[in-house]
Design goal:
The chain is 97% helix and 0% strand. It is built from one helix and no strands. The protein is rod-shaped, with a radius of gyration of 25 Å.
Length: 58
Amino acid sequence: MYQSVKSKAEERFAATQKKNKAALKEKEKARLERAEQVAGLRALRLAKEAADKKAAAQ
């Protein structure tokens, strides 16, 4: 009996760990997507500022 209770607890713990690992992976994926979006927006802003500066110089 003790072995089956311990085994069930270990299975539940393993399932919880697996779920946590998947959640962390998903959060990391979302963070990377957001960072890429921010980098793209920053590049667009810098390009616009450079174009505006060039237009003002002419």
